[in-house]
Design brief:
Number of strands: 10
Shape: globular
Radius of gyration: 18 Å
Number of domains: 1
Order of helices and strands: EEEHEEHEHHHEHEEEHH
Distance between the termini: 39 Å
Oligomer: single chain
Length: about 240
């Protein structure tokens, strides 16, 4: 029995006026796969994530996430995904725990389910002593940790991480990856990562390189390095392409 892909894209594209941010992306991400989208700024990585997460509507083509069309079945898509945004999403005038409780209500999580998860996530990211303080009083790294805790709260089947570790200290970065690897081991979660810390993509099952809105290459990290004649993914990114 073949398991349906967690993500399917066919000819997926997005324009912003005259700017073609993403052009004719064909992509399959298997259920349970750890997948990375890499490329320079403006390559189309965040646009692709926002299309998969139903935050943008495609200009052309189609995409399905967890078997649901991102345009026709957006509510069903959102019920099965988690998203850690590149930009902060917390309400600065609420406390850390109030932000997480508000997120739990948006996800329709009952308190008996949400409260243990919130407590565990706050402990995991070193935020338990700060749970009742306003987000505006947190350091940048603490706010980022709270953002990540919010994205992990629903225990999604597919998790999108858009530059998740930017601004995190080494302890918080390790806590994040410990959480992700545990989710994958225990629940088979599909993880889609964008990052400028290229070494974070080394453990991925596969990597897709985007360049000026187009898919430039796809394969395992080892395959991409062999094709580019380099020993690092950074070298793959820097390799000349037509």
């Amino acid at each position: 029995m073949t398991t349906a892909p967690a993500i399917e894209a066919r000819g997926l594209g997005k324009d912003f006026g005259p700017l073609r941010a993403l052009d004719a992306l064909d992509l399959d991400v298997a259920a349970g796969e750890f997948f990375a989208l890499l490329g320079p700024n403006g390559a189309g990585k965040t646009t692709a994530v926002h299309l998969f997460a139903t935050l943008l509507h495609p200009t052309r083509g189609s995409a399905r996430v967890l078997g649901h069309d991102v345009v026709r079945d957006g509510v069903a898509v959102r019920r099965g995904i988690g998203l850690v945004f590149q930009e902060p999403t917390l309400d600065r005038d609420l406390s850390v725990v109030e932000n997480l409780r508000f997120a739990a209500r948006l996800w329709d999580l009952p308190a008996r389910v949400a409260e243990p998860r919130i407590t565990a996530l706050l402990e995991q990211f070193g935020l338990a002593p700060r749970r009742d303080v306003l987000v505006r009083t947190l350091s940048g790294g603490q706010r980022r940790s709270a953002d990540i805790a919010r994205g992990l709260l629903p225990e999604p089947r597919t998790l999108f991480l858009d530059e998740p570790t930017a601004g995190l200290d080494p302890h918080a970065r390790r806590a994040l990856w410990d959480s992700i690897h545990r989710l994958r081991a225990e629940r088979g979660v599909t993880v889609v990562l964008t990052t400028h810390y290229v070494e974070e993509a080394e453990p991925c099952d596969r990597v897709a390189l985007l360049d000026r809105g187009r898919l430039a290459a796809i394969g395992t990290p080892a395959e991409l390095k062999r094709r580019a004649g380099t020993t690092t993914l950074e070298g793959v990114l820097l390799a000349p392409r037509a």
